[in-house]
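Try it yourself: sequence plus PMV, in.
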Amino acid sequence: MSTIYQATASAPVNIAVIKYWGKRDTKLILPTNSSLSVTLDQDHLRSTTTSRADPSFERDQLWLNGKEDEIKAVGRLATCISEMKRLRKEYEIKTQMNQRYSFPQFHIASYNNFPTAAGLASSASGFAALVASLAQLYTLPASPSTLSLIARQGSGSACRSLFGGFVAWQMGSDPSGNDSLAVQVAPQEHWPQMHALICVVSDDKKGTSSTSGMQRTVETSPLLQHRIKYVVPERMEKISKAILERDFDTFAKITMADSNQFHAVALDTEPPIFYMNDVSRAIIALIVEYNRLSVEAGKGYKAAYTYDAGPNAVIYALEENIKEIVQLIVSYFPQRSGEFKDVLGLFGASSTDL
Ligand code: PMV
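Structure, out:
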């Protein structure tokens, strides 16, 4: 009887405050700018992946939320799997290990503990969990940054989900992609007061995928060129400093400015891309007014909105203000006509606190 080798790993979703938008190499997924994100709480919004290897398996197979999904021969999933196999081979050669663990084929099952249709990116947590589970199965002593090089080739933003807390994806400059990896700016414990609220405005599938949207933006937007060269490098430095100094005012200003510029770049694309809707814009107006009143009262910024490639708002705020913000949002957007689906609190504040 043969032994079955199996390993399970999980990874959370991350939400960028400096947005990644644009690839300089579409095959290796090398970005046109560095980015920075916050990895969300340990329990909510996670992907959990179990990989199994058995000599009797005839081919690699994948099940997503219990349903088999095709592994396309030249797709990103196949790339990640073959990169992990290559890493294992290198490790065997380096350690002069015999090849009894060199499993030829995998069966992989991945689950998201949040609805895949919730309009929240599951590819980041999904690819991070996949790479982490294969690393565990292969007993690779690889650092999260090394694994981020492989997760990046599944979905760019996935490289940041290999760390908790505040994470930078350094764009790198090497054409091989070997320096385009994730590093931790600070662990979650450094600033535990930081919370995130996710306001699910719509769970519709987004109209323009990030892959095709980015490609169109790179090809047509003059504003993107300005952003890459003159805006992002300075913002990366300033927001990293703000995180290290727990300076919420600066963190909030940069986060909102970067979300605005990402959506401006989408609008600057030919033909234009619109990811936000009227409810998204109404939430922006509410947060702007809320901050204005707070600054006037001498209390500084209290909330920072950010939007990815869709209409759902993520609001970063310190724990002491979360309750007030949730009440504010719920009073302005009572859940009506499917327009405003859910307010899900993370980093401790749960939807039951509403
Ligand atoms: O990794 P992708 O292809 O899902 O792209 C993510 C792009 C944004 O979510 C809009 C920004 C980001 O940095 O996560």
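One thing you can check immediately is this: Residues 347-354 have pLDDT under 50 and may be disordered.
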